[in-house]
Each structure stands twice: as C-alpha cells, then as structure tokens.
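Readers of this paper often ask what the protein records in our data store actually look like. This encoding replaces a full spatial description with a residue-level series of whole-number codes. For reference, a complete record is included directly beneath this paragraph.
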Amino acid sequence: MLALLIIFIIYHFIHEQFEFSRITRLNYWIIPVIMLYQFIRTFTWSITNGLVLAGILVFATVVGYFQASHTQLKIEPTIQHHSADAQSTTVVKTSSHQKAATGQPTTNRATTVSAQGGRSYLLGWVLTLGAQLVIEWAYLHEELSWATINNEFLKEVFADLSSIYRFSESGRHTSWTLWALTGATSLAYTLWLAHRSPAVRQVVFRTRTHHRN
C-alpha cells in the first residue's frame, strides 16, 4: 500500500511539471527567502567553504538558466479587448533560440502568467538532486546507500510539491550547502525567467511596463 502511495506521489509530481501553473510573487520568492535565511544562520567562512559556495553558485546559475530557457509561458490578459467578447490568450515558449514575445514589452493590462517546466525542468531538478548527493558524499563525508538516495529523492519530491513541507524540513538540516544549493537554484530560475519575459518580471517584481512609440 505504501509503495502504491509513493508511486502515485511521484507520478503526480512528474505530471505536474507538464501542467501550466500560475506564477505568483509569493510562490516564486518563498523558497529563496527561506533558504537564504537558513544559509545565513549556518554558513561559516573559510577558504574551503568559499570555494564550495562559488561552485554551488555557478552550478545553480547554469541549471536555472537551462530550466528557464526551455520553460513555456502562457500569458492571459485579465481585461478583455474591446473588439472581442472573450479573453485572448498568448502562448510563449521561452527558449535560447527564440525571442518570441518575451523580448517585447507588455502592456499595462493586468495579466495572469502561467509556466510549464516540462522535461527540462525535471532534468534540472535531477541534476540538482545529484549535486546535493555528491556534496553530501564528498564534502560532508556522509555515507551514501540506495536507501539514502531514495530517501533524499522522496524528500525533494515532497518539498517541491509543498512549500509547507519544505519549510518544516528546514529545521532538520544543519549544513549550509543544502540551503545554498536549493536557494540559489530556485532564485536563478526565477531571475532568468524574469529576465527573458517582461510579463514574468511584472508579476514577480511588481514592475510596470509601457508601450514603445
């Protein structure tokens, strides 16, 4: 019974990455803020720690860019056009090979922005989990076993599905590397999305954009 429940949760987690979910300021900032707070509490400066931190930041920047550059965005105006009875919907794929509408400023109309991470987000998630396990083995000298890997995998699945679970787990870890890795990757993803799409930037940073004449 437990095995079936775990399989269902994993299926739900994977399936969710192929569904559009609304981007909100709270959802995209809560993890980086919590992780930054935990990082400040646990980090102690040394040359070794500094080098590890630099490596984590480079890794997080690359993974965040990879995930964000292949994320699909759906932008739905919440104010109807005067010439149409129904709302119009624009689907934008942000990729490294397409500027599409993300390179153009949006209007001041209120919009709802949704994101679909898909395979690229899942791949970045797996790479981040792998980096976490490598750090635990090489830097923290923790013994890795198949049971440990499964446990960490399920924890990250639960944490990605629920910010509340992530918050409850934050008091059970003592190493700053976890906070740095999780927080930096999440923050990099948010910032790269905001960089590529004015609509996302407007939602995440509450900025206003204007037409160009």
